[in-house]
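# nightly structure sweep
# worker-07 picked up a monomer target from the shared queue
# config: single-sequence mode, recycle default, output format = structure tokens
# input follows
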Amino acid sequence: FILWIFFFSRKMENKQIDYLAFAFLGLLSAIALTTGYLGTQLVYVHGVGTP
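# output follows
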């Protein structure tokens, strides 16, 4: 996936769109990692979802 983004961005003429796309993907990745971490802590500390 990262290689696809790299090769796609090499063909683009407008670099601002590339930076915007990378920032958006970075933000989505950060949100996913944060949500995963908080979900793990919720299960570990409170036992949410365990029978």
